Amino acid sequence: MNRDEKFILTITAGSHLSVHCFMLVFPSILLVLKNEFSVGLDVLGFIATLSALMFGIGAIPSGYFESKVGGRVLLLIYQAGTIVATMVIVMSQSLWMLATGLALLGLFCSIYHPAGLTLISRRISNISKGMALHGIAGSLGLALAPVITASFTTLFSWRAAFGFLAFVNFVLAFFTFFLVPKMKKKIVEEDHSKTKVTNKMALILYYSIGIFMGITFAGFTTFLPTHFALQTVEWAGSPTLRGGILTTLVLLSGIIGQLLGGYFGSRFDKAYLLFIIVVLNVPFLALIGLTPGMMMIFSGIIFGIVHFSMQPIGNSLIAQITQSNHRGVGYGISFFFSFGVGGFGAGIGGLIAEHFGVAKIFPAMSIILIPAIGLAWLLKKRV
Asked: Which of 10, 243, 263, 260 is nearest to 120 (CA)?
């Protein structure tokens, strides 16, 4: 990997980390907000769905504008926009103002992924490795968010957690503005994937898989901190801190998954690997809600490894089946289905939690994922 490629990865990785930190603060404080605003987990679940829906919707136009204005401008819009959205959240005195701020946060966070992933797919020679390192940064953001949120909430307030991340993006915006050169003219970039024609049927199948994986991901990440907090009442520490630390442990395992996905994705058939990953997601997701104590945590760690191994493989697969000019929009649509439509998993999980208990969310999500196995098998035949 040459100097320019390392520079691109550094910029995109930092932004990827902050995106996922932002999006996991809210799930980490559900129990706190439930008590403060006197609402049920179903209401909070649908607020999480609203934020996730905006996170997905904004990805489509972002994929289009990436080729028009360049990654630098989109990064600055993401960074500045999240600061404004965070101000709304921090100043919120009602549930609806909080929901508005979270919707804005999801919208501005949606700008990042199509720009970053398209840049990597065009300018990094080893796409699988690039996607893996980029994914590790996102996994690190996911992993750090619960413990950062729990720490600030315990020491100060949940508003301080959002404020801290806004400051991080202010610093990122400063360096982006002064150190990232402006795009002086349109650059025809080298496309390392060599794909000449978009495989539309394979893309449709992949998007369909993404919806089911997105639903399970939303249900998993939204309620895992709450589940751990409720299942470890005999452990020391506040519920928010316990849930945050254990969730961070599970999400850190996703880094192992990213590394494995990058390693195997560059050596074996990506569609076949995707099929195996989808199959393995089902049992370990169910076990999180069906087992107690250390077995519950172990199941969560294994699920984290398996689930996050899909990201470098899936993102590389999109590069493999899309023509370069379509790729930004291709990534945008993928994130709309995965995070936008898939975001309804948070609302579904909230309803399950209110009627059957938080623990039942995880086996229910594993059942929802079963159709994706058939879709992944069909995709294997099409690529």
From this structure: 10
Q: Note the pLDDT of residue 278.
A: 94
Cα angle value 113/114/118 (rounded, 5°)? 115
Query: pLDDT for 13-53, tens place per residue?
Result: 888 899 999 988 998 888 889 989 988 888 998 898 899 88
pLDDT for residue 14: 82
In this structure, which amino acid lies at residue 216?
Answer: T
Cα-Cα-Cα-Cα dihedral sign, residues 369, 246, 226, 161:
negative
Which pLDDT does position 194 carry in this prediction?
56
Helix, strand, coil proportions of the chain in percent (round to 5)? 85, 0, 15
User: What confidence tens digit (pLDDT) does each residue in 250-274 have?
Assistant: 888 888 888 888 888 778 888 899 9
Tokens of 366: 């594993």
CATH number for the region 3-182+191-382 comes to: 1.20.1250.20
CA angle, 53 then 85 then 244, to 5°: 75
Checking if the pLDDT of 331 tops 80, the result is no
Supply the Cα-derived Rg of the chain in whole angstroms: 19
DSSP state of 360: G
Other beta carbons less than 10 A from residue 34's beta carbon: 15
Average pLDDT for the chain: 85
User: How high is the pLDDT of residue 191?
Assistant: 46
Q: Which one-letter amino acid corresponds to residue 121?
A: S
Tokens of 1: 């990997």
In whole angstroms, what separates CA 329 from the centre of its chain? 18
Q: Would you place residue 152 in the very low, low, confident or very high pLDDT band (cuts 50, 70, 90)?
A: very high
Helix (H) or strand (E) holding 332: helix 324-335
Contacts 24+ apart (CB under 8 A), 82-89: 82/18, 82/22, 82/108, 82/109, 82/165, 82/166, 82/169, 83/166, 83/169, 83/170, 83/173, 84/108, 86/22, 86/162, 86/163, 86/165, 86/166, 87/166, 89/159, 89/162
pLDDT at 134: 81
Closest CA to 278 of 353, 199, 368: 368
Cα separation, 311 vs 296, whole angstroms: 24
Task: Provide the strand spans (E) within the chain.
Answer: none
